[in-house]
Give the backbone structure.
Amino acid sequence: VPMRVRPMSGLLNALELHGTKFKYKGVINCFPFKMITTTLSNEGWNIDASASSQILSAILLITPLIPGDISLNLIGETVSKPFVQMTIEMIHQFSEIDSKRITQNGSNFNIPNINFNIPEGKYDIEPDATAASYFISLPLAVGGEVMVKNLQNCNLQGDIGFCNLVKEIGFTITRTELGIESKLDSNSKGGDFNFNDISDTFLSLAALSPLLPTPLKITGIAHT
């Protein structure tokens, strides 16, 4: 989606309500705009992240830096929830040892003031599980098997769940010391799959669906 039409109203409205000013140079709530920032208030954070989990992730990343505890309420549901959990986990990874932790009760998040710090200034980044879905599904097109190196210990990214999904259409997925091995059994099949939690990977399978012997149905991707 072009940046000028990205769904950003849930994020920009929340920032505006808490002290940020925007001067739009085109369509309201879309790029391009000028943002004038001041200190953000810590009360009444109600977030509509129904269009994208990135809206909630963005707010979660900045609210720990606002003085005082913050109660953040999610309006409705958000898509791609694993990305929200990844955001929270990474915040904790970047927090000082004695920092409080973000807690969640249903649609409410309690966010304490957190000091960000990484010991020794080093952080290991997992391989891209979303991009790996292209190669994991490749045996459906060309046969044989594929080893995607260094992916075996990926647990932070929700899109690693693509591996479990393709098992249901006939793939054998094996974690080894080198990475994740993918190969296709002779008895492959289609099916009905909800990609809401791993929506960035649905194109990998959709592009190859004509090669399956039975129909494939993909749901949960309206936001994409």
About this structure: The mean pLDDT is 93.
